Amino acid sequence: MNWRLLAWGGLAAAALFLIIGGGWLLTLPSRAALGNMPPIASQEADATIAALKPPKRQRPLIAIVGINEQTETTDYLMPYGILKRADVADVVTLATGPGPVTLFPVLKVEPDATIAAFDAQHPDGADYVIVPAMSRDDDPVVVQWIRQQAEKGAIVIGVCVGTMVVASTGLLDGKRATTHWYSLKDLREKHPAIHYIRDRRIVVDQGVATTTGITASMPMSLTLIEAIAGREKAQAVARDIGLPHWDARHDSGAFQFTRPFALTAIQNTLAFWNREQLGIALAPGIDEVSLALAADAWSRTYRSRTVTFAATAEAQPSRNGLRILPDQVATQWPAERLLQPVGSLPPAQALDQTLQRIEARYGGRTADFVAMQLEYPRQGPPN
């Protein structure tokens, strides 16, 4: 009798769960609300560039900081790769402690220095501090260090959910800001003194800049290059990375928690028996921006996880000198689970190609699901 009661109880609980879950799904919008994106007024664009002018050095010093335990992959690597290409500033990657930085959802790198070593070498601080998303937005070590850098005159730039980290320092209180669409509710609840600005990929206010989702690192980096070295230099780098047009325009309504998004997350999570581990070969000179975008995108399908492999356990230097540690030591990978080499296309085009391959492998809904997480409009380049 007891087992029958347990069985019926289990069925009742499952039915209740389905009813509640189904009701919740019905409350979600069936599609994102696409809006209009009027051009950015020249006065606003000029003000943004002026606010990002180098505050100290003629050749600025840019520090990209992360915690050792899970800093977002593309937020950390994309500004590094684009700014290093430009060669208009000295760019260093930092960690709060010694050892590698484990990025999420994939990759592991050796930073250039710890924040302690950076402080010893540069007691006057950086010109710019770029803050990626991190697994926790209130790490006391990184929060204190960002505050100290701001006190020394650095412009602080929160990328994506890095806005939440910057918000924890108090530097955004009373200022305008933006963040990744998924974190907007948390930003409003935890930091009500911040004035959220919609329909802008980049918002700058009194020495602090913030951006929308992950791929906003592209226009943010180009805008910073323009502030440092002029429009022509930024345009040259933009052509090199495959993004000839960029500005702060953004359709915030196009990115939200929709019914298709939720259903894809549920369906792909439940298909645990069909999950794949996909391999990316690491080689010296690999483009860190294209690698980050491809590895990040494939790891957000909820159907696959990417790992890097190389013939030895030694770190492999990227195109711009960042040392990337392989996840596995191997000389080859099963052909059906080997991802094609990255870096043959400009990074922006490499992301488009990756999304096309995800669609071919898992379907259009999964590709849209990944693009939504990256806050990337699939019908063209980030805008």
Give a quick rundown of the structure.
The chain has 383 residues and is of the alpha/beta class. The protein is 41% helix and 17% strand. The strands form four sheets. It has a seven-stranded mixed β-sheet with strand order 6-3-1-7-8-12-11, sandwiched between helices.
Q: Would you write up a description of this structure?
A:
The protein is an alpha/beta fold and 383 residues long. It contains 13 helices and 17 strands. It has helices spanning 2-27, 42-51, 73-86, 115-121, 140-151, 162-169, 184-190, 217-229, 231-241, 259-270, 288-298, 347-362, 364-374, and strands at residues 61-66, 69-72, 90-95, 101-104, 108-110, 113-114, 128-131, 155-158, 176-177, 195-196, 202-205, 208-211, 276-281, 304-310, 316-317, 323-325, 328-329. The strands form four sheets. Strands 6-3-1-7-8-12-11 form a seven-stranded mixed β-sheet, sandwiched between helices. It has a five-stranded mixed β-sheet with strand order 2-4-5-16-15. Helix 5 (140-151) packs across helix 6 (162-169). The longest helix is centred in the N-terminal third of the chain and has 26 residues, at 2-27.
List keywords for this structure.
alpha/beta; disordered N terminus; 383 residues; 7-stranded mixed sheet; 17 strands; 13 helices
Q: How many helices in DSSP terms?
A: 13
Indicate the structural class: alpha/beta
Beta-strand level of the residues, as a percent range? 15-25%
The dominant shape is globular
Mean pLDDT: 90
